[in-house]
Amino acid sequence: MSEGKDIQNIIVTGKSGAGKQPRIDVLVNEFGLTQLSTGNIFREYVGAFDSSGFQGDLEPFYEAEKDTFVPDEVMEAAIREQLPDLEEVRPVLLGLKAKYFMNSGRFVPNHSTNELFAEYFSKGGYKGFVLDGYPRTPDQAGFLLELCREKGTKVDLVVLVNNADKLIIERTMGRRICPSCKKVYHTEFKPSKDHVHCDECGTELIQRADDTADKIQMRLAEYYDKVIPTLDILEKESIPVVTVEGNLEVFTEENVRRSVMEKIKPVLG
Asked: SS3 of 79, please?
């Protein structure tokens, strides 16, 4: 683990499939940070909801004309009524909100993403994280900056992983995920030992349903439309944005580590 100034939070961003995870791994190992992924946050809260046993239609909990949920106390009362022995209602309530969007197929609005993120961010005292997948919109960036000011923390650095669109499409279509421990592999660049099962837990690897050419193109369009303006907001707050290459001629853990640390050390002092 690297010594030096106390790092509170680092954002890692870039196009979907640019190669963020290996760079996140470097930051986690070098600075003792914890990865905070919005995808994992949603899955965790949905898991809490699913395991609670709550039954019923979720539509009444969302006021479509206002584009928001009914008040939390209304939702909590409904959950308590059906599950009177539930010890912690908050994770189930948040899981209900995440589940609603999962079932409806709708884009998760900023206010719901911000709420789920803030709840999870608070578990670590609002510091000690590599933020992955958040913020992705200007609204989320503003929310994060205000939250950090309110809680007396900060974002030290943004690491932008750069990669060409063509290479991203090739890379993403070869990505494989462990559904159990979430470890990420690649059929060419980072295969598991037997190319079938996870090295860590032995679970058979899967390809994500949205790792198709059409879905990748949609995510690339979202990057140019939303993430670039988000970076502008962060830079205006004097947060350094360091670009690291997502495509290395020789892909090894040491080369990835060196390519990241050589870029960020001068910025962090």
From this structure: helix
